[in-house]
Amino acid sequence: MKNILVILIVLFTQNLMGQQIISGNPSMDAAFQLAVRTVDINTRRGILAAGGDYGGEWTRDISINSWNGVSLFRPNVAEASLWSVTIHKDTIGQQYWDKIIWSIAACNHYLVTGDKAFLARAYMCSANTMKQLEQITFDARYGLFMGPSVFNDGIAGYPEPVYEPGNYSSSVLDHKNSLSIKCLSTNCIYYGGYLALAQMNNLLKGKPEDSQVLLQKAGLLKANILKNFYDTDTNTLNYLIDQNGKVDYSQEALGISFAVMFGVIEGEKAKLLVENAKVSDFGIPSITPDFPRYSKNMPGRHNNLIWPFINGFFANAALTCGNYKTFSHELNCQIHLAMDEDKGNYNFREIYNPNTGKPDGGYQDWGAEHLNYHWESCKLQTWSATAYISMVIKGLVGMKFNENSVTFNPYLPEGIRTLKLKDLTYRNSTLNISLEGKGKMISSFTVDGKNQKGNSISSALKGRHSIVIVLK
Length: 472
What we know:
By secondary structure, the protein is of the alpha+beta class. The chain has 2 domains: 95-379, Alpha/alpha barrel (Glycosyltransferase), CATH 1.50.10; 403-472, Maltose phosphorylase, domain 3 (Sandwich). The chain is 42% helix and 15% strand. The chain is built from 13 helices and 22 strands. It has helices at residues 2-17, 26-41, 59-73, 75-84, 101-113, 116-137, 184-203, 208-229, 253-262, 267-275, 308-320, 324-339, 382-396, and strands at residues 20-22, 43-44, 47-48, 86-87, 91-92, 138-139, 144-145, 182-183, 230-231, 236-237, 240-241, 247-248, 251-252, 287-288, 399-401, 405-408, 418-426, 429-436, 442-447, 450-451, 456-458, 463-471. A 6-stranded mixed sheet has the order 1-17-18-22-19-20. Strands 8-11-12 form a 3-stranded antiparallel sheet. It has a 3-stranded antiparallel sheet with strand order 15-16-21. A hairpin with a 5-residue loop joins strand 11 (240-241) and strand 12 (247-248). The protein is globular and about 65 Å long. The N and C termini lie far apart (55 Å).
């Protein structure tokens, strides 16, 4: 019995200690290990919870976490979690307005795992859901989808008259004007959802005309996003259109990030959009500036505060348009927010104050008895952790997953001359990846000591392999 207990402890420790990085930067390495542990700690009965203080019932959390690394690190957990927020695997469930993000995560899950059976069922589930949403949330007058912005289920994320003074509910859906608004981030993920559906159909060798219809809808949606949200004079993207047709000109970090990542805005415009975004010393805030009912001393919970998972997407957007300075800033901010003693103190918290860097849940009404209630910044927040994992995997190591290969486009910022990612399980192989040098230009790419012409590996690899990438 004692020997069995020892074995279980060893196995559990190995699971927690699984993948790790070695860079010469102790805080960077410890943050990565903490992020992986956070995922494992928050896995309950095989389902990934949103955080230490939350359950696993949110479609967006599970989708974002799977997309940002759990499909790679813990594929069985990701798959079980993704199905757990569907209705009999036929349609996507939970809060309606941004649940189509599930289809993007599902497509990514297949590219990482190669599970064709999962892909076939996920495509039908996504297609069924998109048809439902087209019928109930599409506003033909604007050619846009209605509903709140991605993840912002709290009313503190909205200005008047979406927010109804005297209505003390914290839930955005209890404020009736929210039902007909159009938001940047939400429409961007619908665009990404159409692209994901077309890609899944192609991967399944479905009817070409089905993909053509999906891409046509995506193209029309993209045009309407730019028509309604893009300001050509200032090269900015606005936040939302309210129920009266009035535009709110706030900067929505998540909307900007998705617009660049999915290619709603491209080229020099995308590069300048990211470069000119308003960013604090601790990273980009969620929605800025403060709405009139909030302030620096009383920040709104879903308003001008830092939600680290958003910063992970903004870093991804920066990489998409080649802005490595912004990527490096967000990466370093994530490390300090999680690890510094006066901030997260070895904890990936839910929300931080952009002026102090300290955990801060912000203010939001919570019933008439809790006016201007100061909320907690919850501990062990999963999507804060996976945002950092994504920065390392997709940013520093530069892994891009395709159906039959993985392509590497790494980047080593100032102060990091080596980076080793150890014991990374990918499909039927275990990879040890070493980066050497500086910057982003690859001078050599070897697998098991043999030079490769390209910077990719086959998904069919089995067993243990060593990849060494030297950067100029």
